């Protein structure tokens, strides 16, 4: 399946790209957002980050058809501030993050992201790192497996599945995605297996988050991205599950919404905020996009703007 950037128009509109602005795409992927940013900033510059070298190789060809005013950097987006400092950049006009796994990653059986294909357990965004899904499933103790299935997968059967994995691997390693799916199914009651949706979906999500340290990295990059915005600079973030969205919502509100005052205490004046929410509620896909791109169903776009100097 060809990758379609989710909420593309809405995201680019939210960034309000300046012709001579400095922008960062923290999740280059297949270049959909970067392409549109480059088209709108002919006198500006775009930095593109991705931990997947294959994504960089593919997207570079696409972006060169638009402009030479960009640089792709193979790194995790948690290194955003450090990477830009090396480039002599300490403030930007806009940053975009699309936190979804791209279609090519899901649809490449060898990457081991999907329960739809039989492949070695992998799930690494960055193929150069050592930690992968195989190590999680075959070396984590039952307590840690339960923790990530509960916290990152929000699976009500987390304990049962963790226990079954430990029992199974005592007999032989769990090497592939289909072997893991079989283990998961083997310990679930018929009423769970008959429910709509794949029974392994939440567990695979949990493993992927653990392998790639997704939530920890998100906290780091959001904090740094907010601090890098110039006056009138904008940050747009697309999330695909509640764990991500909760983090983004909380961190945006922390800097853009007045804290509720305790009326029992003397007030020292209203706190002056440096940021504002671009929209109070998340932007979601239009009916047309929902029909054309199934992966847009869970997407939520939130935006933050740094206020201009008075």
UniProtKB/TrEMBL annotation:
It is an enzyme of class 2 (transferase). Keywords: Cytoplasm, Methyltransferase, rRNA processing, S-adenosyl-L-methionine, Transferase. S-adenosyl-L-methionine binds at residues 31-33, 50, 77, 98, 105. It catalyses: cytidine(1402) in 16S rRNA + S-adenosyl-L-methionine = N(4)-methylcytidine(1402) in 16S rRNA + S-adenosyl-L-homocysteine + H(+). InterPro entries: RsmH, SAM-dep_MeTrfase_MraW_recog, SAM-dependent_MTases_sf. The keyword Transferase applies. Its EC number is 2.1.1.199. Specifically methylates the N4 position of cytidine in position 1402 (C1402) of 16S rRNA. Belongs to the methyltransferase superfamily. RsmH family. This is Ribosomal RNA small subunit methyltransferase H. It comes from Faecalicoccus pleomorphus. The gene is rsmH.
């Amino acid at each position: 399946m060809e990758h379609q950037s989710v909420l593309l128009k809405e995201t680019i509109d939210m960034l309000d790209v300046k012709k001579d602005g400095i922008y960062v795409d923290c999740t280059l992927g297949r270049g959909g957002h970067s392409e549109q940013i480059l088209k709108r900033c002919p006198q500006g510059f775009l930095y593109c980050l991705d931990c997947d070298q294959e994504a960089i190789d593919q997207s570079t060809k696409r972006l060169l058809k638009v402009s030479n005013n960009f640089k792709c950097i193979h790194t995790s987006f948690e290194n955003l501030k450090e990477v830009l400092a090396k480039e002599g950049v300490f403030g930007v006009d806009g940053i975009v993050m699309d936190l979804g796994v791209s279609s090519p990653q899901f649809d490449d059986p060898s990457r081991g992201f999907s329960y739809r294909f039989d492949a070695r357990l992998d799930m690494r965004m960055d193929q150069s790192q050592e930690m992968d899904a195989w190590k999680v499933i075959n070396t984590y103790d039952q307590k840690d497996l339960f923790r990530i299935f509960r916290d990152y997968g929000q699976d009500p059967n987390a304990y049962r599945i963790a226990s079954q994995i430990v029992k199974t691997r005592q007999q032989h390693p769990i090497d592939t995605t289909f072997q893991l799916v079989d283990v998961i199914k083997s310990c679930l009651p018929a009423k769970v297996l008959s429910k709509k949706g794949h029974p392994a979906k939440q567990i695979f999500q949990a493993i992927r988050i653990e392998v790639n340290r997704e939530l920890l990295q998100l906290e780091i990059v959001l904090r740094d991205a907010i601090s890098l915005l110039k006056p009138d600079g904008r940050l747009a973030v697309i999330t695909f599950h509640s764990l991500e969205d909760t983090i983004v919502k909380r961190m945006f509100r922390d800097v853009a919404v007045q804290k509720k005052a305790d009326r029992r205490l003397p007030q020292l004046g209203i706190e002056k905020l440096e940021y504002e929410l671009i929209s109070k509620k998340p932007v979601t896909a239009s009916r047309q996009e929902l029909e054309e791109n199934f992966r847009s169903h869970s997407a939520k776009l939130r935006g933050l703007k740094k206020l201009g100097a008075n």
